[in-house]
Amino acid sequence: MTDFVRPGVWRCEFVLVLPPDLGGASFRSVASFVMDFVLYARQPEVNLRSGCTAPESKLLPAEWPTRAVMVTEPLGEPEELETLHVGTQHVNLWWLVPIHGAEYNLIQQQGIEAFHALEEASEWSLADVRRPPLV
């Protein structure tokens, strides 16, 4: 989990949910990926919102077949956790979900709803970075 601040805009926390063995990756490679994503998300052209995606990248741990990333609201969490209120600050909670290239393409072409429909019909957990593609 990491804190992200874009000056003058808002704060957010990223959560990367993984299996206990980190999908076969080392803690160092996972932490490096999260930090790389934070740097990516700080770019002025990146507009974080539910369903936004980052294309396939070699920056994700090599042990994972999932090479792209989807940002989504917390899945399976109470709705009130989507935005945390700390004093006068509002902190958005975003899940980082590693996805396959075919899933990235589906989201780009048909939208996040198409992906979520496949995910709901699947028996696989999105936390399993070694799952087969849903597409």
Automatic annotation (TrEMBL):
<dbReference type="Pfam" id="PF05076">
    <property type="entry name" value="SUFU"/>
</dbReference>
<protein>
    <submittedName>
        <fullName>Suppressor of fused domain protein</fullName>
    </submittedName>
</protein>
<feature type="domain" description="Suppressor of fused-like">
    <location>
        <begin position="10"/>
        <end position="132"/>
    </location>
</feature>
<dbReference type="InterPro" id="IPR020941">
    <property type="entry name" value="SUFU-like_domain"/>
</dbReference>
